[in-house]
């Protein structure tokens, strides 16, 4: 702009010199001066418009710079948030991995405890079976002892004036009573309950197994159809 102004001033100076030389051409010179004046005014208006445009563009540039700065700040915040979220996500993944490891360890521990419990149940069942066998043997011995005691008492009470045939007949009757079912007192003992090893006839046990309350008539031990086995006496 300064260069243009200098050129314009130089032209104006040349025009003035020329007008001084062309004094005699007054009308033409005045017209030239008016034209130059009009051009000068046009140039001044153009300069003013250029300054106004420069101010407008400078204001616009300042606004764009402010917007760019705001966008840069927002990008910085978003970048920081992204970094923080990535760190949080990594921490969450680590925690999930730790939780999975702890869960697997708990599952393994639970399976071991379950296996130990199963082995304990099997051992307990075996001990119960052994205990029931011992109870059965003890009851059988007690029954035998009771039979011998009764025989001794009967022999002692019938020692005087009793014949050998009567003693044998009485003894046979006692054995028959022992072999009879203690529920119906009619049929012979045919099956045994393996839970308690008590003997009964098959119809009586069958009637109990078909009912809801499956318990031994002697000791009230619960049993199922698989716990009934045949015996041959």
UniProtKB/TrEMBL annotation:
Instruction: Tell me the enzyme class.
Output: transferase
Annotated membrane-spanning segments are none
Start and end residues of each RING-type domain: 181-219
InterPro entries xrefs: E3_ubiquit_lig_Bre1, Znf_RING, Znf_RING/FYVE/PHD, Znf_RING_CS
Q: Name one GO biological process term.
A: chromatin organization
Compartments where found: Nucleus
Documented EC number(s): 2.3.2.27
One of the record's GO molecular function terms: ligase activity
Q: Which residues form a coiled coil?
A: 110-158
Keywords recorded for this protein, A-Z: Chromatin regulator, Coiled coil, Ligase, Metal-binding, Nucleus, Transferase, Ubl conjugation pathway, Zinc, Zinc-finger
The pathway that the record names for this protein is: Protein modification; protein ubiquitination
Q: Which SMART domains match?
A: RING
Read off the SUPFAM superfamilies from this record. Answer: RING/U-box (SSF57850)
What's any one GO cellular component for it? HULC complex
Catalytic function, reaction form: S-ubiquitinyl-[E2 ubiquitin-conjugating enzyme]-L-cysteine + [acceptor protein]-L-lysine = [E2 ubiquitin-conjugating enzyme]-L-cysteine + N(6)-ubiquitinyl-[acceptor protein]-L-lysine
Q: Name one Pfam family in it.
A: zf-C3HC4_3
Classify the source by domain of life.
Eukaryota
Q: Which family does it belong to?
A: Belongs to the BRE1 family.
Q: What is this protein called?
A: E3 ubiquitin protein ligase
